[in-house]
Amino acid sequence: AHFYLLPPLVAQPATPGEFDGEQKPTVEICELVENACGPVIAHFSRKGGTGEEAIKVDVSNGRYFVNWNTQHCRTGGCTLDPAKFYRVRFLLAGLELGHADLDVVSRPQDIRSATTGEFIPLVDGKLLQIRFRLEHGIKLVNHAQQAANAARFHPNSVRYGDRGTKPATGRSGSATLAARALLNKDGTTDIEVTTGTLDAATAPPGNLDHVQLKALEEDGDALWTRNYTALTAGGAWQASTPILGRGVGFQVQANVTGIDANRTDVVTVQGTVARRPDLTVENLTHPAEAQLHASVMISATVREVNGDVGAAGNCNLYVDGARVDQALGIWVDAGDVVSCAFSHRFTTTGTKALEVRMEGVVPGDDDLANNGAMGTITAVDGSDFSYWAYAWDRDYENTFASAYKVERTRSDDPTYRYYYESTVKNGHESFHDQGHSLSGWMSREVTFPLTRGELTAASGGTTRQAVTFDDLAADYTSSVRYGSWSQRESCASRWMTDAGGRGSFQLCAGSHGYDGDIPQSYTRLDYVRWAGAITYYSEQMLRVISTPENRDESYVWTGNYSDEAGTQPPAALSAVYVLTVVLKDTPIGGSTTTYSMNPGIVLSPIYDYSWDNPYRCNMGIDTYGPYVTTWESCGGKKGYYRSNSGSTSDAGRVTP
Fold first, then answer.
1. CB atoms inside a 10 Å sphere around CB 408
2. Cβ 439 vs Cβ 387: under 8 Å
3. Could you give the CA distance from residue 26 to residue 447 in angstroms, rounded to a whole number?
4. pLDDT tens-digit profile of 87-105?
5. Which residue did the predictor score with more confidence, 120 or 593?
6. Which of 382, 491, 493, 448 is nearest to 583 (CA)?
């Protein structure tokens, strides 16, 4: 759509759209081999081409044009072979707009014998006038590359792992029961019971007529029993109690009606109390500046810190208080770390407030105060060739032991006694994550396909990642127009997997502006190595990675360190982390321009502390009304938390 061949190649077509004279198309002629392009014999661009001919713009007639003297080929003088067919390809950012096939004849009188229905006749040695039209609204997609990107994706509805404490489940007849007990930071424990699936949006079947809750000793005997009768709220029930601690066993027995006809099903389940999940948003990563109207990559890590149960929720990006992007239904396994990746375009200049926030957490978040991370970014309209780089490395280890004993009596009731004693419980908690982000921008436009792209990451003299791309073509190119303002942009996205983990490289180039003004050209790149177990991609991020037909749903993830990725969590970074990006742009008929960035990031300790608390016990007596509680709490732990990070910014280098 919005691309037209013009006379003399074809008859004059109807062209209802608005002419776009700001594009940078290329034209190439190749030998046609089995209906595909073979050896290229001629090239043309806006800057030059074969026989020193360049593509020109005829604004008054709404067309692009270039003349090819068929006696001139890329290698010099040549003679076309009448026994062969040739193809003229019209390209934007290395993506094909369309093509025309030529049937070469030796003499003008032989044109009648040419296959004029499918091929355009061309007399060898004559001038071929190539005319074509481009209009606003063009969109081209490299479906093969985007399908390759999409092949790494998994829908957010599929959990990458679930190693936390599971709900207790049981069955009697056709009736099923699921129950869990989650300990809150205020010391209360929430008991949830359902005849369906916990956290499901649909109402569970049947009715829970009676629920019996027991706290269990280590040997399975009941510490205490509570009965809840005459219930009429359907197949879901919940209650809160202050006397169930972490690791305490519990038993739920429920009478269920309305599922098996004329029968009351009695279902019993047993489980243990776990801490409610606590998701915290950390490491909001973004450049200090963003090019106006150019997509910028923003990311953050989300960690589950309590270590018992995983949680799902929505990872949202806010700009100046308004939600602009989202990754819905992400899952963070117990004690794990994941990344959220966003993409955003700023349409006005100035300093913007950023926030990444976890919302709608299920089964509920233990501490809402740590569910967001904030920062600022400045949107600019044009800047010098420059970059901003950031890297971090975090390591946490904790080994602990705990025990608890409590006895509660009532001064007005000698028969009342509650007693609970846990044996010594040992545990180990740990996480290790690291990543980097390099963002570069400049007020000039590179030309796709780039001759070469090189990306490396090194730490302590050891190369962590080394990737090269030759003939780096765009994944998509598009042009839009709103009133008197227009923009065109081409982008390439690539995924990288090696022993250092999984990373992403995104390069976008284009221009924008109002009619009558000089268009503002730009190039923006982001080179990111993702942190955590997996990366979730937001709605906007996914739009520049894959087309809708190449993915199953709008929200997906990829693994960073897994058997699937063939990688393992990386070794700790050294004090200096070096990133290198080299781009080589060789326009047709022009000389090579090399753009390079080579930031050395000095990592400094942000947190570096350890603890070694010997096992000890504290005792006390609390009195509340008639209740007298005697308690003894014992514990000890040993571990460390180290977090090193650093950032740097500077001008890049341009070498013709």
1. 18
2. yes
3. 10
4. 999 999 999 999 999 888 8
5. 593
6. 448
- pLDDT tens track for 224-267: 889 999 999 999 999 998 767 788 889 999 999 999 988 999 99
The residues near 564 (Cβ < 8 Å, ≥ 6 apart) are none
Q: Where are the beta strands (DSSP E) in 485-572?
A: 485-498, 501-514, 520-529, 534-537, 556-559
Please give, one letter per residue, the 3-state secondary structure of 160-205: CCCCCCCCEEEEECCEEEEEEEEECCCCCEEEEEECCCCCCCCCCC
Start-to-end CA span in the chain (Å): 36
Cβ proximity of 204 and 234 under 8 Å: yes
Which DSSP symbol is given to 277?
P
Burial of residue 415 (number of CB atoms within 10 Å: 0-12, 13-18, 19+): exposed
Q: How many CB atoms lie within 10 A of CB 151?
A: 12
Backbone phi, psi, residue 629, to 5° = -115, 125
Taking a C-beta distance cutoff of 8 angstroms, is the pair 333, 534 a contact?
no
| Exposed e or buried b per residue across 508-518, where buried means at least 16 C-beta atoms within 10 angstroms of its C-beta | bbbbbbeeeee
Give the chain's length: 656
In this prediction, residue 563 carries a pLDDT of 47
Determine the Cα–Cα distance for residues 453 and 209; give it in Å rounded to an integer: 67
pTM for the whole thing?
0.85
How many other CB atoms are there within 10 angstroms of residue 37's CB atom? Answer: 16
C-alpha 572: how far from its chain's center? 24
Which DSSP state fits 146? H
Per-residue model confidence as pLDDT tens digits over 195-213 = 999 999 899 999 999 999 9
Integer Cα distance of 66 and 130 in angstroms: 5
CA pair distance 242, 234, nearest whole angstrom: 25
DSSP-derived letter for residue 150 is H
